[in-house]
Design brief:
Blueprint (H helix, E strand, L loop, with lengths): L1 H28 L17 E11 L7 E12 L2 E9 L6 E10 L2 E8 L8 E7 L3 E6 L7 E4 L5
Antiparallel strand pairs: 1-2, 2-3, 3-4, 4-5, 5-6, 6-7, 7-8
Length: 153
C-alpha cells in the first residue's frame, strides 16, 4: 500500500514538473519584440490574416525546389480558425487546422493534423507583429516558425 502511494506521488510530481517545463519552453522560444504583448491594450482585429515563407531549396540536382511555410486564419471577435502548413521541397511536412483565441497580439491555439490517422492535438502559441508571426509549441517535434506577413488570396 505504501509503495503504491509513493509511486503515485512520484508520478504526479513528474507530471507537474513536465507541464511546467513545457510551458517554460514555449515562453523561452518566443522572441523579444517591440510589439505590445498586453492583451488589454492591443485591439483585436476581425478579418483574414495570411503569412507565408517560400525558401529556395537546392537538392544538388539543379532543380528549383521551394520549402513553404503557410499560416492563414480568420479572426471573429477573439476566436480564430485557420490552417498551418509546412511543406518541405522533397517530402514530409505538416498540414492541419488551427483554432483558438486571440488576445492582443498573442494567439493560443490547437493544431490538428489534417491527415493524421489518430487525433494528436498540439498546443501552439502564435506571437503576431506588424510584419510576421512566430509560431511555437512545447512539442519539440513541431518546431518554431517565423513567417512573414503576406497578402491573402
Amino acid at each position: 500500500m505504501k509503495k503504491t502511494i509513493l509511486l503515485s506521488c512520484i508520478a504526479t510530481a513528474s507530471l507537474i514538473f513536465s507541464c511546467k517545463e513545457n510551458s517554460e519552453k514555449i515562453e523561452e522560444a518566443l522572441p523579444e519584440t517591440s510589439v505590445e504583448a498586453n492583451p488589454a491594450e492591443a485591439p483585436v482585429e476581425n478579418g483574414k490574416f495570411c503569412f507565408k515563407n517560400e525558401t529556395p531549396y537546392d537538392n544538388g540536382n539543379g532543380t528549383n525546389l521551394v520549402d513553404i511555410e503557410n499560416l492563414e486564419f480568420t479572426v471573429d471577435g477573439d476566436v480564430i480558425k485557420g490552417k498551418f502548413e509546412w511543406i518541405p521541397a522533397e517530402k514530409g511536412g505538416l498540414s492541419g487546422e488551427i483554432s483558438g483565441t486571440k488576445k492582443g497580439n498573442i494567439i493560443d491555439a490547437v493544431y490538428n493534423e489534417t491527415y493524421a490517422e489518430e487525433p494528436y492535438p498540439i498546443s501552439l502559441k502564435i506571437l503576431l507583429s506588424d510584419d510576421e508571426a512566430v509560431v511555437t509549441s512545447s512539442d519539440e517535434s513541431f518546431g518554431t516558425y517565423t513567417i512573414k506577413k503576406s497578402n491573402c488570396k
